């Protein structure tokens, strides 16, 4: 079959548009800000299709260092090929080789202005995903992440400072918006002798975010030889999240190596904290008897997917006890939950949903855990073992290239997180959707799903196979 180029591609070929060069190799560029010439490295993922909006990740280097060192230390360029995003490495002024983290009282940091100008430049050349603009950095660059989040909370979706400190945020420029919560993941080595323990900084930021629960301590899984102790604060929404990853025995370094477990954990946290995370979950579908072809499921204006066909499952690979794909027609309702390894939001959500499956299985519910790889891809066996550790031993499907997730995301506007949950009836019609990132035990979201299942499924005494087609 002959494939015709898209209209945008034809325009690019004709030279009528300035089409950015797509390359994973970072390119050095310059921009004039406040009369001074500043420079930065920019990496554009080769996997980008030139159409989809791109998240932006700012990566700030440490004092006395440079942007190139962050390229080598983090491995974000290679990781951006799995999850396409623009990676920007701003350089501090050559004369001082450090960012302005503590500007004079009442004046905006010159480097906050630098980031403002960079975003304006990027928006001229790329379709930017405004809900996914993130910042990470090392040492002095980590402190700039805090400054940037405090002064641009309406822009920055989440931050992940590494080996840094919390600046004096009382010295904030006039005109800065009222403080808004910005999710935080602070990474630090337990043996860092250069920057002191960050516990108080994380607790302070948690209060700023109105995180009312915590601290809760556990060990971050999937970090290989590194022992990473996590302390987490949470609140009413994921926007309140503030966590500390303390790496045992590590000093003032970017731990784990390029593309390693720390870089992957940072991307996992940032990716699950878009700027629209405070948006309420979609309302459950209205009560309805089992669907037949003559009686279509009701549409839900709050969630475009509800009442529409789930569509093909051909892009999914299946690992089921019976060795065959799960057919929607084989049970009254099928609950599909996207999950991945090293996902803090899946640790509580998957067991909670598996508990619902156990409760409603006799009434016609089956759950499918849909694995979508992030970072180090799990083998089929490892994915099965990981799911079992999360408390789920049922049917697994593998969305290896995120094909089905991206389709559902674009059809339903599901841009909060990749860990979505979709309820499908025996006719293949979507009945309920949760945009992610988590459905906690005891939460209102779990109660809403429980109530929806109870309405849609027949009483246990009358449960049986779905109506004949």
Structure write-up:
The chain has 469 residues and is an alpha/beta fold. It folds into 2 domains: 18-271, Rossmann fold (3-Layer(aba) Sandwich); 317-462, Glutaredoxin (3-Layer(aba) Sandwich). It is built from 11 helices and 16 strands. The strands form 2 sheets. The chain has a 10-stranded mixed beta sheet with strand order 1-2-4-3-5-6-7-10-9-8, with helices on both faces.
Count the helices. How many?
A: 11
Strand order of the largest sheet: 1-2-4-3-5-6-7-10-9-8
- What is the string of SSEs from the N terminus onward? HEEEHHEHEHEEHEEEHEEHEHEHEEH
Number of DSSP strands? 16
Percent helix, as a range, is 10-25%
- Mind telling me the CATH class of the largest domain? Alpha Beta
Distance between the amino and carboxyl termini? 36 Å
Average per-residue pLDDT, rounded, comes to 84
Biggest pleated-sheet summary: 10 strands, mixed
Number of domains: 2
Q: What is Rg?
A: 23 Å
Summarize this structure as a short list of keywords or feature phrases.
Glutaredoxin; 2 domains; 6-stranded mixed sheet; 11 helices; 16 strands; 22% strand; globular; disordered N terminus
Summarize the structure.
It is built from 11 helices and 16 strands. It is α/β, with parallel strands linked by helices and 469 residues long.
């Amino acid at each position: 079959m002959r494939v015709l180029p898209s209209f945008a591609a034809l325009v690019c070929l004709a030279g009528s548009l300035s089409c950015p060069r797509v390359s994973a190799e970072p390119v050095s560029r310059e921009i004039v800000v406040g009369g001074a010439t500043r420079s930065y490295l920019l990496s554009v993922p080769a996997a980008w299709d030139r159409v989809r909006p791109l998240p932006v990740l700012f990566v700030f280097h440490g004092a006395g260092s440079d942007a190139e060192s962050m390229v080598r230390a983090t491995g974000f360029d290679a990781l951006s090929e799995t999850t396409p995003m623009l990676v920007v490495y701003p350089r501090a002024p050559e004369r001082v080789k450090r960012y302005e983290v503590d500007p004079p009282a009442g004046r905006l940091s010159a480097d906050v202005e630098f980031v403002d100008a960079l975003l304006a430049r990027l928006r001229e050349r790329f379709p930017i995903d405004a809900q996914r603009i993130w910042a990470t950095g090392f040492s002095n660059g980590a402190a700039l992440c805090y400054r940037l989040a405090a002064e641009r909370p309406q822009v920055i979706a989440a931050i992940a400072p590494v080996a840094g400190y919390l600046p004096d945020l009382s010295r904030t420029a006039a005109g800065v918006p009222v403080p808004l919560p910005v999710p935080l993941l602070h990474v630090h080595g337990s043996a860092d002798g250069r920057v002191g323990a960050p516990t108080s900084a994380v607790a302070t930021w948690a209060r700023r975010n109105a995180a009312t629960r915590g601290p809760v301590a556990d060990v971050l899984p999937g970090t290989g030889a590194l022992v990473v102790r996590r302390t987490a604060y949470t609140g009413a929404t994921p926007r309140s999240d503030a966590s500390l990853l303390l790496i045992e025995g590590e000093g003032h370094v970017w731990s784990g190596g390029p593309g390693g477990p720390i870089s992957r954990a940072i991307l996992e946290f940032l990716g699950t904290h878009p700027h629209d995370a405070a948006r309420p979950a979609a309302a459950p579908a209205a009560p309805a008897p089992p669907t037949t072809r003559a009686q279509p499921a009701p549409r839900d204006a709050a969630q475009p997917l509800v009442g529409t066909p789930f569509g093909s499952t051909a892009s999914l690979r299946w690992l089921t006890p019976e060795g065959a794909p799960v057919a929607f027609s084989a049970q009254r309702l099928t609950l599909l939950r996207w999950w991945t390894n090293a996902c803090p939001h899946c640790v509580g959500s998957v067991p909670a949903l598996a508990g619902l499956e156990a409760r409603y299985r006799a009434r016609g519910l089956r759950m499918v855990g849909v694995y979508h790889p992030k970072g180090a891809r799990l083998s089929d066996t490892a994915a099965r073992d990981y799911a079992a550790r999360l408390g789920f031993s049922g049917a697994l499907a593998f969305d290896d290239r995120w094909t089905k997730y991206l389709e559902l995301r674009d059809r339903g506007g599901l841009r909060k997180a990749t860990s979505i949950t979709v309820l499908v009836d025996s006719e293949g019609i979507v009945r309920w959707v949760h945009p992610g990132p988590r459905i906690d035990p005891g939460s209102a979201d779990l109660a809403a799903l429980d109530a929806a299942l109870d309405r849609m499924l027949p009483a246990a005494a009358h449960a049986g196979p779905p109506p004949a087609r």
